[in-house]
Design brief:
There is one protein chain. It contains five helices and five strands. By secondary structure, the protein is α+β, with helices and mostly antiparallel strands. The protein has one domain. Helix 2 runs antiparallel to helix 4. It is globular, with a radius of gyration of 14 Å.
């Protein structure tokens, strides 16, 4: 797997999804980069180690902000990351695209959908949104 600097756990502006295998993940990353996404903003992987990185809570790093976000989202972000972690454990490749501007989220979701990605989810400032609908 290509070494990337992106964190497996999304920031407040990210798109997550999962695809079937490493080759598909690499193709999706290449297409995302071709569409203008910085490769350093993309993390992908599979297995227990990557799942653990996805699910690691970072609420303590920004206690007030993370707590407010958690309360407003009613835990939806954590649920989505746990589900993505389970997919990584099952052998699918999880993909996290960080630093996504809202104006680019749909084009990123379209690229992922072309690679048969499942559970394409956007994390905005205070919202979590399913982007896999009607793709």
């Amino acid at each position: 797997m290509t070494c990337m600097t992106a964190d497996a756990r999304p920031n407040d502006h990210a798109v997550i999804a999962h695809v079937g295998d490493a080759a598909t993940a690499e193709a999706a990353v290449a297409d995302l980069a071709e569409s203008g996404v910085d490769r350093d903003a993309i993390a992908h992987g599979t297995g227990e180690s990557f799942a653990a990185r996805l699910e690691a809570g970072d609420e303590d790093s920004h206690p007030a902000g993370r707590l407010v976000k958690f309360l407003l989202s009613l835990g939806q972000e954590r649920e989505e990351l746990m589900r993505l972690g389970e997919e990584a454990r099952s052998g699918r490749h999880a993909i996290v695209v960080n630093d996504v501007e809202e104006s680019h989220r749909d084009s990123i979701a379209d690229v992922l959908a072309r690679h048969d990605a499942r559970d394409i989810v956007w994390f905005g400032d205070w919202q979590t949104e399913d982007l896999s609908i009607q793709r």
